[in-house]
Amino acid sequence: xxxxxxxxxxxxxxxxxxxxxxxxxxxxxxxxxxxxxxxxxxxxxxxxxxxxxxxxxxxxxxxxxxxxxxxxxxxxxxxxxxxxxxxxxxxxxxxxxxxxxxxxxxxxxxxxxxxxxxxxxxxxxxxxxxxxxxxxxxxxxxxxxxxxxxxxxxxxxxxxxxxxxxxxxxxxxxxxxxxxxxxxxxxxxxxxxxxxxxxxxxxxxxxxxxxxxxxxxxxxxxxxxxxxxxxxxxxxxxxxxxxxxxxxxxxxxxxxxxxxxxxxxxxxxxxxxxxxxxxxxxxxxxxxxxxxxxxxxxxxxxxxxxxxxxxxxxxxxxxxxxxxxxxxxxxxxxxxxxxxxxxxxxxxxxxxxxxxxxxxxxxxxxxxxxxxxxxxxxxxxxxxxxxxxxxxxxxxxxxxxxxxxxxxxxxxxxxxxxxxxxxxxxxxxxxxxxxxxxxxxxxxxxxxxxxxxxxxxxxxxxxxxxxxxxxxxxxxxxxxxxxxxxxxxxxxxxxxxxxxxxxxxxxxxxxx
Length: 512
Fold this sequence. Notes:
Layout: E1 9-12, E2 15-19, H1 21-46, H2 52-75, E3 77-78, H3 85-103, H4 105-109, H5 118-129, H6 145-160, H7 162-169, H8 177-184, H9 197-222, H10 227-238, H11 256-269, H12 273-280, H13 286-289, H14 291-311, H15 318-333, H16 348-358, H17 373-391, E4 400-401, E5 404-405, H18 408-434, H19 439-451, H20 474-485, H21 489-511
Parallel strand pairs: 2-3
Antiparallel strand pairs: 1-2, 4-5
């Protein structure tokens, strides 16, 4: 029996266990999600709202069902001795699909979404776990608190990644842990904070949890926000997710202090967490040494100035225009998707600016979506190098980011990612438009889904829900959410594996 096989069975300790990375990882992920459902049920229990009974039952029943399936998969499977990257990609993709399906249960059991619209519940769940922030709910303020708390938790789980959390807390995932993190973590290659993969995962989640706690504490102390609202918005700010427990999003509070705290939180979450770890260990100059960070900050500052200048004649004061520009540029650039204003009412130039910001979004190694600033930097320098090579064919010109030489494998992977990402977004936009909406709404929805951003333009704008888009177009957006969050390759490899198995099955049938 091959050590790398993901399907062979093995007798261990008197029990038959399946050697399967996919089953083992999916089981652990489902157990983690079930714990979040149970916690949300407790939140619903302490709430005195009219839906308390239904709320608690919906969360607890979902927790029991999800936990039972998760434990069954976990306890009846084991990891192989060696982990192949392709198997890790497949395991991560399947686990994300599984938790997204499980995440739809609280919405259905509570009656918040009717069973006849199970696809809408799946849309809300995928939007949460992928930190997209697009919603089909149109009456959030009256929704049960426990289910809404779980809705916020889905984004928090998805921000740093369920698999990274699993590697952090499960000693059994030390084998192949780096491959699993690489399949889930955003960026061309995962950063290791320590030689031990499990310790790296722990430190990433410690930073993430610490940032979440800092945002929640700041909202309670400086903005006088209640505990429930503070936690709800801290979860999604740290995850750059964008869900709010109010229909009006952050505009509900109409508070400059709330917006200022969230802007800082979003920008920190949109930066590489490896830099934060190095800074906390005393190397505060690390930010200035990294070219991606300098471009990230420069894009933010330049976009805020430009957005303010473009909208200063719309009737609001300069201070209020600057405040709206700062918050919404930070929200969209970090792929968070919080809103304080309907930016579809801004001028065309401002809307084009915001759409352009949605493409790169923030930094690699952050919780943000999009193509990432680093990839655009690599592409720009690659283009410059090729122009130089056309003039001097024999010149040796390594591609550098500051003092760092970028390997040709990273360059090739980046180019492949960008090509696949843009192709999927364009095809997805065309399909959503063909399903029955206008091109602005269709293509902006595709861009925001792939980038994990949330609000777009037209019928996908912040004043609308995604129920305003055609029902046939929403499955396309679900695919793009997963495609973008898992950064293309895991989904492509998984699709290839499914097609390969189908071809082999067809060949066997034909051979008979």
